[in-house]
Specification:
10-stranded mixed β-sheet; 22 helices; 20 strands
């Protein structure tokens, strides 16, 4: 009965503040459960896709032909490997982007950054699956299109795909949208299209370029590193990168993992502010309840029992908010996991998907319980005598510096009084200020991250110097000569201001334990289009090297350390001159001016800037035709195609964050002002009796609200630009970019979003203060 009475009294006295705490805990619980659901469903969907597709544990990509002797050498080597359970050699028909036209585009895929291939359905493993995780088998005249193009171009079943080259053309009907466990995500610049074996045989003469995947499934995947070393030491064909199942999983989960991280960051921010608000409410309640506490202690009630009463009512409030947030996360989960379902598939229908969000919310409740218990420790220092002597008049007494009305230089008295009220009763208005700080940070962090991803400046986190145009060539037979021809043509083009060619090749890397690994080093001049380095500088001599952040961590190397590689079995010592950020290739790359190992080349690229006044789009079209089959792209197109799905996910999160931030600000402003007006009823009545009009009083409260909003948005922006940026950098540090600098859109961040919040808060203030119409001095004459 005592607990019930205390709860009723608390709800009647602090509807506004308790409502604020409830909403914060509700949204924190909702986002916590939503983020946990996204992670759980992402893992479950990946498990399902990898199991159905029977993903290889190790893949060696090889550009160029494999003759009979090389195939026989591979078979002989495999026969002596006890770790190999299954293996296969997959030949892929390489397509130039200009040879492929998809529905929904403006023409051939000449400017695509993707390496395009035609394949048959594999027999043993590495299957391509459809939307229902079944193995599609297109008929002759049909084609399966990667889900990437269904999302980016709107390709659907029944559409027509055109293949053409040198007078040959072929129309294929889209029969399935396929998922590829190896090449699904946009950040992987390779895409496989599925066709019938007869169609495959018919197309080979017209598209003779090929690339091979030498694939293995192991008897013991835990010994993958051992197998990788054995393969590298074998000397078998390896003109291309080697990748494994761990990298496949990382790249498939990258886009949605980033979205999940942002959601969890927002939930932690909301929870922190909710705990601060809860602390303010509880301290105010304890101060008001001093006499009741004194009575309970005087009649012999133990301090532990009194603490239990308060713990029960506030923990009950938190539990109600957490349950409501958990239930509300069920429909929100569909929105968050939509991208997972489209790209990876439906998660398994087991209890895990429900238990993980529940466990996350229970963990949230545990944190809240510990915070409440910590606050209630002050009951130990309250004596019955002191509590009975306490007066509650202190709470309503305004504190702060004296601001005389005569000292005001503002032309509008009511504006001065509104500002003065905030200053003198800052402790009272502090909760509303915390709300606005949270609303500002909650809306700005995902918006800043989104504008950063969409900015051309983000290219520096991909291990690429900023340039107008980028040209890429696959490593294949004759590619070196073709690349030299491109360099000569670029050097002779008067519209090119500067250019820098690079060749990526694979070298052997001896390890301290006596084993060896591979290291992919991009060779060329890295001073023309410089990167931004976390430490050190660009390598300029052939005995120098720069490492990506994750490579430097893996190898435990810093600037000034030496690294030894092998070139044709000859050791070469290089000095580390710089550490840079890179999220491509699993975050593990290196750059050096040393001559490339052309026999081990895995990629060719050339970056260039045009002279001012040139048309990049026209130059891209010219180069695409002239340098076929090279990929020619503008910087913006490169970023859009690589990060498109991540940007789409953050678009949804940003829109939701603006909505949540505005809704929280509006609701809390409304609840707070209704509470404040009820509390200020005597003050309002006195001011009206002195001649203040209703509109004048409204301007006072509106001034107070907007002042707090300005302070809150400013502080929220500062929090987003410091702590928010640090949190985003921490998350991306696991992917290779540990020092993200937000690229802020001033119009969006400092005009549009504040205007939305200010409009909502002004509207909430206007409607909340209409209750002053019922307040007159007559109600208080008797007192």
């Amino acid at each position: 009965m005592i607990l019930q009475r205390l709860m009723i009294n608390e709800l009647s006295r602090r509807r506004g503040t308790l409502g604020a705490v409830f909403l914060f805990l509700f949204f924190s619980s909702l986002l916590t459960a939503g983020g946990a659901s996204l992670i759980a469903e992402l893992n479950s969907a990946l498990d399902g896709l990898f199991e159905t597709a029977r993903v290889p544990h190790f893949v060696q990509m090889h550009a160029g032909e494999l003759d009979g002797e090389e195939r026989e050498a591979i078979e002989t080597w495999v026969a002596g490997q006890a770790l190999v359970a299954e293996h296969q050699i997959v030949r892929m028909i390489s397509l130039d982007g200009s040879s492929l036209t998809l529905p929904g585009g403006s023409g051939p895929e000449a400017e695509s950054v993707m390496d395009l291939s035609l394949v048959r359905q594999n027999r043993g493993f590495d299957y391509l699956v459809d939307g229902d995780n079944r193995l599609p088998q297109p008929d002759p005249g049909e084609i399966g299109v990667p889900v990437y193009y269904a999302e980016e171009r709107g390709v659907s079943v029944g559409d027509t795909v055109l293949l053409e080259r040198d007078g040959f053309s072929r129309n294929l009907r889209v029969s399935a949208i396929i998922r590829d466990a190896q090449m699904n995500p946009a950040i992987v610049h390779s895409k496989r299209f599925l066709i019938h074996p007869d169609e495959y045989a018919e197309l080979i003469p017209h598209f003779p370029e090929s690339e091979y995947l030498i694939e293995f499934r192991l008897t013991d995947p835990e010994r993958l590193d051992e197998f990788s070393r054995s393969w590298r030491d074998s000397g078998l064909p390896a003109q291309g990168p080697a990748v494994d199942i761990g990298l496949f999983r990382l790249l498939n989960g990258l886009s949605d993992g980033v979205v999940a991280a942002v959601v969890i960051i927002l939930s932690l921010l909301l929870m922190t502010v909710a705990l601060l608000a809860l602390r303010l409410v509880m301290l105010a309640a304890i101060e008001e309840d001093y006499r009741e506490i004194g009575v309970m202690k005087a009649i012999g009630m133990p301090s532990g029992s009194i603490r239990g009463l308060y713990l029960g009512k506030y923990l009950g409030l938190a539990a109600a908010a957490a349950i409501a947030g958990l239930l509300a996360s069920l429909p929100v989960k569909e929105l968050l996991t939509a991208n997972v379902t489209r790209y990876i598939g439906d998660p398994a229908t087991d209890m895990t998907g429900s238990l993980i969000p529940l466990a996350a919310v229970l963990l949230l409740l545990l944190v809240i319980y510990l915070a409440i218990a910590l606050i209630l420790r002050r009951f130990r220092s309250i004596s019955a005598v002191d509590a009975l002597r306490a007066s509650r008049s202190s709470e309503t007494k305004a504190r702060g510096p004296e601001l005389a009305v005569v000292a005001s230089r503002l032309p509008e008295l009511n504006i001065f009084l509104g500002l003065r009220d905030v200053v003198k009763r800052f402790r009272l208005f502090g909760l509303l200020l915390f709300i606005f700080i949270a609303a500002g940070a909650v809306t700005l962090i995902p918006v800043h991250f989104l504008t950063t991803l969409k900015s051309p400046e983000f290219i520096r986190y991909m291990g690429i110097g900023r340039a107008d145009i980028r040209i890429d060539l696959r490593a294949a037979e004759g590619t070196n000569e073709r690349f030299e021809d491109i360099i000569s043509a670029i050097a002779a083009d008067e519209e090119v201001e500067r250019y820098a060619p690079h060749v990526a090749s694979v070298f052997e890397l001896p390890l301290p334990d006596g084993t060896s690994d591979e290291i992919r080093i991009e060779s060329g001049d890295f001073t023309i289009f410089p990167l931004e380095y976390l430490s050190g500088r660009a390598p300029v001599d052939k005995n120098e090297i720069a490492l990506s952040l994750l490579y430097s961590r893996d190898l435990e190397l810093e600037v000034g350390d030496a690294i030894t590689i092998k070139r044709d079995t000859i050791p070469v010592e290089l000095t580390v001159t710089g550490i840079y950020q890179d999220i491509t290739n699993g975050g593990r790359t290196a750059k050096s001016p040393l001559p490339p190992a052309l026999e081990q080349a895995v990629g060719y690229s050339l970056s260039l800037d045009l002279v001012p006044g040139s048309d990049p789009a026209a130059k891209v079209a010219e180069y695409s035709e002239r340098f076929r089959p090279a990929r020619v792209t503008e910087l913006k197109a490169y970023l859009d195609q690589t990060l498109g799905s991540t940007i789409a996910g953050l678009n949804r999160i940003s829109a939701g964050a603006v909505l949540v931030g505005t809704l929280v600000a509006v609701l809390i402003t409304s609840l707070f002002l209704r509470m404040l007006i009820a509390r200020d009823a005597r003050r309002i009545a006195i001011m009206r009796s002195l001649g203040f009009s209703l509109s004048a009083l409204k301007r006072q409260y509106l001034t107070s609200s907007l002042l707090l909003l300005i302070l809150g948005i400013g502080s929220g922006a500062l929090l987003a630009n410091t702590a928010g940026q640090g949190l985003v950098s921490f998350i991306w540090g696991f992917m290779g970019a540990s020092r993200i600098s937000f690229v802020i859109d001033p119009l969006l961040a400092y005009l549009i979003i504040p205007t939305i919040l200010a409009t909502g808060v002004a509207g909430a203030t206007f409607f909340s203060i209409t209750g002053m119409r019922e307040t007159t001095i007559a109600a208080y004459i008797a007192e």
